[in-house]
Queue: 2 jobs
Job 1
Amino acid sequence: MKTTRFDTREHILLTGEQLCGQRGFNGMGLIELLKVAEVPKGSFYHYFPSKEAFGVAMLERYFAVYHQRLREYLEDHQGNQRQRILDYYQQSLDSFCQESSFEGCLSVKLSAEVCDLSEQMRIALDAGSKALIATLKQALERAVQQGTVTLNNTPDACAQNLYMLWLGASLQSKISRESSPLRNAWQEIARMLPEPR
């Protein structure tokens, strides 16, 4: 079966994301990527002028998928929006525990690694994070409008804190090879989103 231009590019990006999840961006060599993806070197450079350009495209793809999943999960619910937010983080925690995977998400894996090495990749990480935070903010605003939560801060500040807390807990879980940092983060998120009294 002949693949289209998009299929080949997508295949390289997906393969690269999997390898970066295991080895990091710098630990993933282009030769290894091409071998695992089973594409010639010319195909890589046809789609990406450099490894850095590939990294930017990979992060943009990763965050686009992540953002769509988060948005659909939070918006596809007419009931208690506070509970939906808590359920999202509980689902993430459950997934982490079931898979026993300490690779963590790509943003956790690459944040510290590439921010000082590639300005373009740093910008992609920043833009992706901001999109996720904006979606969390909208969900928190809906929860406030519903009267299902009482925030001690603005929805924007609270969304940033939720994102940073979970990102930090994910990193600590990766370091410790334990799920307790994420469990503690979930409990803190529940405290940050109190129900009205």
Job 2
Amino acid sequence: MTIADIRKTTEAKMDQSIGAFKSNLTKIRTGRANPALLDTLQIDYYGTLMPINQVANVSLLDSRTISIQPWEKGMGAKIEKAIRESDLGLNPASMGDLIRVPMPPMSEERRKELTKVVKSEGEGAKIAVRNLRRDGNEAVKKLVKDKLASEDDQKRAEAEIQKVTDRHIAEIDQLVAAKEQDIMAV
């Protein structure tokens, strides 16, 4: 493995960490409705737990209401039950075949709690990126130790890895700030 390979794999893994962080951010509720909020729900489909998007069509009716259209008639009650029993604090209402899930307005206290959750998720993502930086630097040091690269190459590679790390941490900071602003907007 060369220094360029190490830098590429380190950057790719950092990109994956940011992708996972973005995915986690979509699961954190804001004041607006978001169909991705229900992605973690598992519905009992004839004895097998399935994600909600595999048993129903999930979409937005308006900015504060999610609509769920089950693909089978008997699934409505099971979907409603799963939403009520989840920790999302949502109360679905059935209207024939359509299930409406209104988003209740959040209190100021709840908004502040959610910003703390966002910050801790951001810190977790930063730690993951820094761990990847450490792993990349150790791989470069191993190349130098095995006499496959010079110490000058090591210094250059560590500087490049640091630049990539700084760029990813700045992106995480931007995502955290944008999500906090989204949560605090009434």
